[in-house]
UniProtKB/TrEMBL annotation:
Protein name listed in UniProt: MGS-like domain-containing protein
Keywords noted in UniProt: ATP-binding, Ligase, Nucleotide-binding
Organism: Effrenium voratum
GO molecular-function terms, A-Z: ATP binding; carbamoyl-phosphate synthase (glutamine-hydrolyzing) activity
One of the record's GO cellular component terms: cytoplasm
Domain of life: Eukaryota
Domain (MGS-like) ranges: 47-177
Keyword Metal-binding: no
Amino acid sequence: MFSFLRLSGADPHLGVEMQSTGEVACFGHNAHEAFLKSLIASGVQISKIFEPCGVLLALNPKDKAAVAKYLPLLDEMGFKIFATHGTASFLEASKTQRNANNSAICVTPLAKSAEGAVSAITEKTVQLVICTPSSRDSAGQTPGYKIRRKALETGVPDREHAAGPDAHRCPLREVHP
């Protein structure tokens, strides 16, 4: 975990030059425990994720199908699922929104602009963000940048890889099924 909060305006998406750099190294009895410890050490309030809360999905086109398979798991854990307009449209069209009882999983679409997602983060409607970057805009003002930056500034955990839901799900389920 890298301390992006100390770098004003920095995009919390790690580029090639920073992927092996970190400020938090944690050990545990297994990878899940070490991951949880790293979240806690980097300032994530784990107790907020255990409460019924919202998760925001803001996915680039190539990750949408990969993350869609995790919707039943997020639903089972009690997350209320929010999505950016493009992600919500994909999930609706893909018809993968079924839980273990074969009932529809509700995905709440947010406004078309990044401002809807930023508002959901600011207002604490969501307590977990899964935002996969789609470009490396040198100006840094992409919608994904705004979402990731607001999550960082408000202390909301942000996963930026398609494995994000599973990376959070497994350790959280071990500690708090």
